């Protein structure tokens, strides 16, 4: 159908096109649609007006979606037509592989896919497709959201089984991938207890060790610090329990000054070359002081916050 206007196609002679505006309309800021898109949308409005749900509507809506994948009303009408005509939804999913790979940042593509999977009930193969998309764009919000929906909606242990290993692989590739850190919180803390993780104290120790290693590797990575704060708050663990770990990240020039014979292996020091002091660590230490009711500790917190505002983190001063 591409390259041929519907107005020139005899197969569509029975449809009365509906223009976006009346002939006498004088829009303030008209959009310069291509003639191909304008023609297709005129015929789309025509079939909506008559309520037609047929195979040729699927051809029309695919044509429009490829020109404008964000057109929500076209997606919805396409879905209604698929259901009404009892179309092959597996074939539709294959089509979405193609369109989704090309338009992976379009919400409507993922919403349509979700509707299909709810009917097909084939979540496991979806993980491979999601991985292929994240291999291209590892921080795509819509892709990660779809992955989380898939896990939570079907809640199948076989789906959850490899999630920790997968997110660790993503963080090995990019320790600053905030989307991957968010997904780790979703998997470990935010969606119930998975098989094998019933001992939450052990999980807490595991996650502390993991995030400490990642902070030591890249101290100025806000994503790792946010993950640490998130699960400490979630488990109601006082920030003060991390004081010994935090201190080396708050002192300028502290890298390389540790006595390896007395180093606490549970608290890895900042990696060589780290830029210190680390603003996130200074803020964390200030909040540790805020936890204490004594006047001296509150005053120390104020000093730290002033140092952040005036020296170490000026961009967030306001």
Please provide a written account of the structure.
The protein contains 15 helices and no strands. The protein is 59% helix and 0% strand. The chain has helices at residues 35-50, 55-67, 72-84, 89-102, 107-120, 124-136, 141-154, 157-160, 163-173, 178-188, 200-217, 222-234, 243-246, 279-291, 295-312. It folds into three domains: 1-19 and 31-120, Serine Threonine Protein Phosphatase 5, Tetratricopeptide repeat (Alpha Horseshoe), CATH 1.25.40; 122-198, no CATH class; 200-317, Serine Threonine Protein Phosphatase 5, Tetratricopeptide repeat (Alpha Horseshoe). The radius of gyration is 27 Å and the shape is elongated. It is mainly alpha-helical.
Major beta sheet, specifics?
A: none
Approximately how much helix is present in the residues? 55-70%
* N-to-C SSE string, H for helix and E for strand: HHHHHHHHHHHHHHH
Span between termini:
56 Å
The DSSP helix count reads 15
Cofactor: Mg(2+)
GO molecular function, one term: protein farnesyltransferase activity
Organism: Sphaerobolus stellatus (strain SS14)
Family: Belongs to the protein prenyltransferase subunit alpha family.
Question: What attributes does this structure have?
Answer:
elongated; 3 domains; Serine Threonine Protein Phosphatase 5, Tetratricopeptide repeat; 318 residues; 15 helices
Compose a concise summary of this entry.
This protein is mainly α and 318 residues long. Helices cover 59% and strands 0% of the residues.
């Amino acid at each position: 159908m591409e390259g041929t206007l519907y107005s020139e196609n005899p197969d569509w002679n029975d449809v009365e096109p509906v223009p976006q505006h009346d002939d006498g309309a004088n829009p303030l800021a008209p959009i310069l649609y291509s003639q191909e898109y304008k023609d297709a949308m005129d015929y789309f409005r025509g079939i909506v007006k008559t309520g037609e749900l047929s195979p040729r509507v699927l051809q029309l809506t695919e044509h429009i979606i490829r020109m404008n994948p964000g057109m929500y009303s076209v997606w919805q009408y396409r879905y209604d037509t698929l259901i009404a005509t009892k179309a092959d939804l597996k074939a539709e999913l294959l089509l979405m592989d193609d369109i989704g790979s090309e338009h992976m940042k379009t919400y409507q593509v993922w919403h349509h896919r979700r509707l299909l999977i709810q009917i097909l009930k084939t979540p496991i193969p979806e993980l491979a497709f999601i991985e292929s998309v994240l291999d291209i764009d590892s921080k795509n919000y819509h892709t990660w959201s779809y992955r989380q929906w898939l896990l939570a909606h079907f809640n199948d242990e076989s789906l959850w089984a490899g999630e920790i290993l997968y997110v660790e692989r993503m963080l090995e590739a990019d320790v600053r991938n905030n989307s991957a850190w968010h997904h780790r919180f979703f998997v470990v803390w935010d969606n119930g207890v998975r098989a094998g993780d019933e001992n939450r104290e052990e999980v807490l120790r595991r996650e502390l060790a993991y995030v400490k290693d990642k902070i030591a590797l890249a101290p100025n990575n806000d994503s790792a610090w946010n993950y640490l704060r998130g699960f400490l708050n979630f488990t109601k663990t006082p920030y003060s329990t991390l004081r010994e770990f935090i201190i080396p990240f708050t002192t300028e020039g502290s890298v390389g000054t540790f006595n390896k014979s007395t180093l606490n292996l549970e608290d890895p020091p900042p990696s060589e070359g780290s830029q210190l002091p680390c603003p996130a660590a200074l803020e964390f230490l200030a909040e540790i002081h805020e936890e204490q009711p004594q006047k001296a500790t509150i005053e120390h917190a104020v000093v730290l916050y002033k140092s952040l505002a005036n020296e170490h983190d000026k961009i967030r001063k306001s």
